[in-house]
Amino acid sequence: MRAAWAILAGLAVGGGLAWWLGRGQAPQRSPEARERARQAAAANAEDAAHPLYRWRDASGNLQITDSPPEGRRYERIAREPQPGIQVESTP
Length: 91
Description:
By secondary structure, the protein is of the alpha+beta class. It has helices spanning 2-22, 31-48, and strands at 52-56, 62-65, 75-77. It has a domain at 33-79. It starts with a helix and ends in a 14-residue tail after the last strand.
């Protein structure tokens, strides 16, 4: 019975020691894996950030579309509003 307790205590101490010594070591990625991850993140961000276009038609009506108009002035606007409150002063 004492041998079983000694083995169990040894396993517990060994497991605790292994955890303590290995807790600060993160696995290292290769430069190729980091570059692939960066490219994938950039592609996802680019897909998620398609702008909208605000412009006026020949009748003066405000139009908001996914694609820019041809031959007209337009303004690019983000799909997501900026956080916070924007205050514009008029002269």
